[in-house]
Amino acid sequence: MSDPTSGQTPPGAADPAGPAGSRRATGPKHRADPKDTPGPAGPAAQAQIDPRLLVREQGFAGYVGEFKRRMHSGELGSLPVVVGLAVIWVIFQSLNSQFLSPQNLSNLSVDIVATGLISVGIVFVLLLGEIDLSAGAVSGACAAVLAVLHVNEGWSPWAAVAAAVAVATALGLVHGLFFAKIGVPSFVVTLAGMLAWTGLQLWVLGPNGTVNLPYDGLIAQLTSTYFNQVIAAYGLAALAVAGFLTVSMVGNARRRAAGIPFRTTGDVILRTAGLAIVAFGAAYVLNQYKGLPLALLIFLAVVVAADFVQRRTRYGRSVFAVGGNIEAARRAGVNVAAIRISVFMISGAMAAVGGIFAASRIASASQATGQSNVLMMAIAAAVIGGTSLFGGRGTAYSALLGMLVIQSIASGMALQGVSNSIQFMVTGAVLLAAVVIDSISRRSQKAAGRA
Amino acid sequence: MAAMPEGTAGTPVLALEGISKRFGAVQALSEVDLEVHAGEVVALVGDNGAGKSTLIKVIAGVGPADTGEIRWEGRPVTVTSPGAAQGLGIATVYQDLALCDNLDVVGNLFLGRELRHFGVLDEVAMEKRSRDLLHTLSIRIPSVRIPVASLSGGQRQTVAISRSLLGRPKIVLLDEPTAALGVEQTAQVLDLVERLRSQGLGVILISHNMVDVKAVADRVAVLRLGRNNGVFDARGTSQEEIISAITGASDNAVSRRRARSDSPKEATDE
């Protein structure tokens, strides 16, 4: 109603629908006659202001408002899992003062690595909206391949590791080809894989069923090495903080130069300080015991690298696109089959790396490696950490956060002497809670028009 | 208004001549001609099964024609793949938007042609170009960093259309861009179509909505049963005439009798 009139008022006149003026300026040729052109969208025009700019202009209150808005509209991110982890730690610490001891936390940080590495691969598959049920069996089979090649065949540990990862990548390729090229649902392909590769594991291990790894060999040292110099853990923390700060500052400078919204310096400092507290806190605790575990260092490096691939490369963007809308990705020129196959190869390779660390932790590869609940824990970790089962949403950090939750529960229960049966039930309940939170947040995101 | 004479003066950017295509026993297109000039909106209308989608697929390179010639700026070309069509400068916006809900506006605009900076996604450059592009087209969305899922239908359609413009095309094919949109959202999309025209692009607009067609099109090409059934000047032709060309209602006993009794009006060519 106001639009035809605003079309007639001169551009300089006080005009509540201000953007209508700039609109005329951009398209004067066919804007000359406002009669036959439908009016501009009043509400849409007001929403033109970038909400992030708005937040920054309002200072601290703006962040609080933005936080409330995000909570209300269901954009929870990692918040539930961080809160959950804090609650779990408080509960177990109050039950047993040994829980937050440096020794327990240090062991915890090594215990999460094997399954956590498998979970990193699972995150890639979940981003596609698919599932890989074979990860546990692949990790067990490749641990067996590694042990047999290294111990029985006398290969060097590096060659055996490379062979194990290559075998797993090939197994992932098989899953991927059946899924992407023939169109068998990933659930079925990897279920068949789970059975077949469990058989492969038993066959490779032979009649004994267990191959012990040399206790002081390179493979066992993967999980038994600690950098006990105080500088190692603090140095890593300092490196992480400095790296984060540099990336933020450089990115911000580029954004400012390009004239697009950027974070305020206060914002950057706040985030860096948050990271510094976590990083130096962890370094302090680890130094109280044996120092920085090599396994944890490798796990963190893998998680950061996976996150980089997912968020900062064309490949990762394509994975998200395929997980969001296959047809859109295909029309945009993404090679959907190649993405799918490669993701299953990544999942296989990560399963093998996880299996190698699992074997390293107990210095043997047996029929039990990668069996039982390893697969379910890996999937649960990814989901608890905030990666959606429905595809297209998630981050590599969910493998780390989710594993921390699961392993904290296991460790706390073990300290209390609670039996396995209860552990399983509690972990199941936590998994269900995570999926419920995911589903509810999706629903409120839909209600708020954000899903 | 003046668009039609000035447009038809030069060489058409895209000209189809004698396009025929057969699917088994069905002759989907026979001897179809179509011309699109720079700065011109040509509406392609026709009933269901008239061959609109088949013709679009021929132009977009998805389903090449059996016979017939396609000329691009006067020279004969073959369009045998979507890539070839895009290489020429033909951008296609399909009816079912083809946007990824989980990606933000920038991610969608640059999907498949991400800008990179030492192999890493250059988010800054992409965001800047997205903002510039949306600004030139006077498209208003709250932020280029929100997921596409949170946009309205009209905003999503404008994002889909602007995405096709990143490749700097000369011809834009819009397949039912206003289907399933509300009044205000339709208006936004039609505004955008006009802006494309004013920027010198040729637009082929497929629509079932005669009001939309009359609002933005310069010429209306009617397909009926896989054949040309007339090209009309959108300003000088009534909605009823176009609809009767679509349905074939003009070619029955009543209309022939009326044509004999009335003074001869503009004929629908064969």
How would you describe the overall organization of this protein?
The complex is a heterodimer of chains A (451) and B (270). By secondary structure, chain A is an all-alpha fold. Helices cover 74% and strands 2% of the residues of chain A. Chain A has 21 helices and four strands. Chain A has helices at residues 2-8, 19-26, 28-31, 42-46, 51-57, 59-72, 79-95, 102-127, 135-152, 157-182, 186-205, 218-224, 230-258, 265-288, 294-312, 314-324, 326-331, 336-362, 374-384, 397-416, 420-447; strands spanning 210-212, 226-227, 292-293, 364-366. In chain A, strands 1-4 form a two-stranded antiparallel ribbon. Chain A has a two-stranded antiparallel sheet with strand order 2-3. Chain A is globular. The model of chain A is unreliable at 1-48 (pLDDT under 50). Chain B is an alpha/beta fold and 270 residues long. Chain B has helices spanning 3-9, 52-60, 82-88, 105-109, 123-136, 153-165, 183-198, 210-216, 239-247, 253-261; strands at 14-23, 26-36, 41-46, 67-72, 75-77, 90-93, 116-117, 120-121, 171-175, 202-206, 219-224, 227-233. A six-stranded mixed beta sheet of chain B has the order 6-9-10-3-11-12, with helices on both faces. Chain B has a four-stranded antiparallel beta sheet with strand order 2-1-4-5, covered by helices on one side. A two-stranded antiparallel ribbon of chain B has the order 7-8. The longest helix of chain B has 16 residues, at 183-198. The model of chain B is unreliable at 1-8 and 266-270 (pLDDT under 50). Chains A and B meet through helix 2, helix 13, helix 16 and helix 17 of A and strand 8, helix 5 and helix 7 of B.
Break the fold down into its secondary structure elements and pairings.
The complex is a heterodimer of chains A (451) and B (270).
Chain A: H1 2-8, H2 19-26, H3 28-31, H4 42-46, H5 51-57, H6 59-72, H7 79-95, H8 102-127, H9 135-152, H10 157-182, H11 186-205, E1 210-212, H12 218-224, E2 226-227, H13 230-258, H14 265-288, E3 292-293, H15 294-312, H16 314-324, H17 326-331, H18 336-362, E4 364-366, H19 374-384, H20 397-416, H21 420-447
Antiparallel strand pairs in A: 1-4, 2-3
Chain B: H1 3-9, E1 14-23, E2 26-36, E3 41-46, H2 52-60, E4 67-72, E5 75-77, H3 82-88, E6 90-93, H4 105-109, E7 116-117, E8 120-121, H5 123-136, H6 153-165, E9 171-175, H7 183-198, E10 202-206, H8 210-216, E11 219-224, E12 227-233, H9 239-247, H10 253-261
Parallel strand pairs in B: 3-10, 3-11, 6-9, 9-10
Antiparallel strand pairs in B: 1-2, 1-4, 4-5, 7-8, 11-12
Helix pairs in contact in B: 6-7
